[in-house]
Specification:
There is one protein chain. The protein is of the alpha+beta class. The chain has five helices and twelve strands. α1 (69-103) runs antiparallel to α2 (110-163), α1 (69-103) runs parallel beside α4 and α2 (110-163) packs antiparallel against α4. The N and C termini lie far apart (74 Å).
């Protein structure tokens, strides 16, 4: 996929089977967008490596002091596109399962139909929750727009009374009232902006490795430091023979933020006190709101000779007990396997329990026929 770099904006294509440039720039100056050919670096997992959650209640950002309405508009549009894509993906999966149920009612066993029906109900519950979540975000955004219009009106009143003659008592009282309203609407916008930020879900980031195009050599050690608001992720890796890479951490969960950008710093560890900063980039994150996992690549240095590959999965909810979108979609492969397994034998062949039941019914019919029942 492709992501734009601050301050550029660019729409991405959400696919996991291809890797494009997640171009970054040095924090001191902007650079033009760079493309990247696909690559698949090999990453080995160390023992005990688990997904980390770099946030708790203390990591959540406090309400901002100054609202950012233009930035919120961009994040809201990207969020709506991501939620719409989520709904479309699960709606297609629901239609697919419903079709399988209709086609397999006559030639499948009850266990298989029960499994399909259970998956259909699970996806339906997830869709209802997703629709409710989208409606809640719309309500928050509408309330935010109302407060923004009131704030703009109060700002115009303050400007008008300030430029006029403030000598009269009525003018001073009107100016004080308009200033009070402007402050109140600003605080309301900040609170709504913070509340909307808490509804953005989670970014599950998985480390896939570095690509150096003959820059990476066996024995090289790198340290990657990611900063996203108050959230931090530091990991170290080593390049081994056969281009294998070993990292002490592979997965991280970040809370999406409205006004912050993802900062990535890569350092090459040459000796105990000799560390060389390869690159320090800042990247846009609003394009990561997508229904399917995305493989992105970050240009670490100016020439693009060192790139960082990441797999990003967006979860619209930040609860551990929520039904995973990937689990609902990935069940289709299991269903297809079971479907093919059941169809290998004739569907009309009764099981042993069914045969015993048919025999008992037949015997009861004979007894009734001969008057011995």
């Amino acid at each position: 996929m492709s992501l734009s770099v601050r301050p550029q904006r660019r729409v991405l294509v959400t696919k996991i089977n291809r890797s494009q440039s997640f171009a970054g720039v040095n924090s001191s100056a902007d650079r033009p967008f760079r493309n990247l050919s696909p690559f698949t670096p090999t990453v080995s997992r160390k023992t005990g490596s688990r997904v980390s959650r770099m946030f708790s209640m203390s990591h959540k950002s406090p309400p901002p002091k100054v609202p950012q309405p233009n930035r919120l508009d961009e994040v809201y549009e990207a969020l709506k596109k991501g939620l719409t894509a989520y709904l479309e993906v699960h709606q297609l999966e629901l239609e697919k399962l419903s079709t399988q149920i209709r086609e397999s009612k006559r030639n499948s066993r009850l266990g298989f139909l029960y499994d399909l029906d259970k998956q259909v109900k699970s996806i339906e519950r997830f869709l209802r929750r997703l629709e409710f979540h989208a409606s809640k975000i719309d309500e928050l955004y509408e309330a935010y727009c109302i407060q923004r219009r009131l704030r703009d009106g109060a700002h115009n009143m303050v400007k008008a009374y300030s430029t006029g003659s403030p000598g009269s008592r009525e003018a001073r009282e009107s100016l004080a009232e308009a200033s009070k309203g402007y402050k109140e609407y600003t605080e309301n916008m900040c609170l709504l902006e913070n509340e909307l930020e808490s509804q953005l879900g989670e970014f599950h980031i998985r480390m896939k490795g570095l690509a150096g195009f003959a820059r990476l050599c066996a024995g090289d050690q790198y340290e990657i430091f990611m900063k996203y608001g108050r959230q931090r992720w530091k990991l170290r890796g080593r390049i081994e023979v056969n281009s294998k890479q070993v990292w002490d951490s592979e997965e991280m969960v970040f809370l999406p933020l409205v006004t912050e950008f993802l900062s990535i710093k890569v350092t090459e560890l040459k000796s105990l006190a000799n560390h060389v900063v390869v690159g320090n980039v800042s990247c846009e994150t609003k394009d990561l709101f997508a229904a399917l996992p995305q493989v992105v690549a970050v240009d670490i240095n100016d020439l693009g000779t060192l790139k960082l590959s990441l797999e990003v999965t967006w979860n619209p909810f930040d609860k551990d007990d929520q039904p995973s979108a990937a689990s609902s979609v990935n069940k289709a492969s299991t269903v297809n396997k079971r479907f093919s397994t059941y169809n290998q034998s004739p569907p009309d062949t009764p099981s042993l329990r069914e045969q015993a039941f048919y025999v008992s019914v037949h015997q009861a019919g004979l007894l009734r026929k001969h008057g011995q029942w």
